[in-house]
Amino acid sequence: MNIETNRLLLSPVYEEHTKYIFKYFNEKVITYMFPGVPKDISETREIVQKFIEQRKNNTDYVYAITLKTSQEFIGLVGLHHLRDKIPELGIWSKIEAHGNHYGREAIGGILKYAEHLGIKKLCYPVDRRNIPSKKIALFYGGKLVTAYKEVKTPDNRILEEEIYEIEVPESKTP
Q1: What pLDDT digit, counting tens, does each position of 10-30 carry?
Q2: CA-closest candidate to residue 139, choices 114, 117, 108
Q3: Counting Cβ atoms within 10 Å, is residue 13 exposed (0-12), middle (13-18) or buried (19+)?
Q4: What are the residues facing 125 on neighbouring strands?
Q5: Short-list 92, 162, 101, CA closest to 134
Q6: Residue 35 and residue 28 in contact, taking contact as beta carbons nearer than 8 Å
Q7: Which of 83, 169, 79, 58 is nearest to 120 (CA)?
């Protein structure tokens, strides 16, 4: 199922997105993220296959973010750990797209989809130094529930993680 917002189309990740993910998921993008950069495109293919399997198993839904007008690839957004009491939001966008509020818009689309799924609350982990990402959580009424803690990534970086909880708004349909 695709999700549309004013400017964006969020579509389930498939093999055709592999080359874009590999190209744009780079050292600059991961500065404040847990996963490291894939070493080669075959590693990215494995990650995409994992996302496809997770979707089939209804555990995680990962979407490619594209512009509706041009189909330009922007990044990925996801609902993770759907079987947990409070599932998790995740997002990244390519550096060239930063500053356009695409992340905020994509998260808004995912929140509407989460409501459709009956989810009431989501967690949003963010490195406290990643001010634009923190602003997304705050824009949607996120409340800080876990203050700063250090998290070591698989590639030995240290994140300064905070966790926000975002209430999924209920639509007011007449």
Answers
A1: 999 999 999 999 999 988 888
A2: 108
A3: buried
A4: 163
A5: 162
A6: no
A7: 169
User: What is the residue-averaged pLDDT of the chain?
Assistant: 94
Element counts in the chain: helices (H) and strands (E):
4, 8
Q: Helix, strand or coil for residue 161?
A: strand
Read off φ and ψ for residue 150, nearest 5 degrees: -80, 135
What angle do the packed helices 131-139 and 102-116 form, to 10 degrees?
Answer: 40
Helix (H) or strand (E) holding 65: strand 61-67
CA distances from 76 to 11, 95, 129 (A): 9, 13, 21
Confirm whether pTM is higher than 0.85.
Answer: yes
**Token code pair at residue 152:** 């070591």
CA distance 62 to 83: 15
Q: Which two tokens stand for residue 33?
A: 């993220």
H helix intervals, the chain: 18-24, 41-56, 102-116, 131-139
Closest of 19, 21, 131 to residue 65, by C-alpha: 21
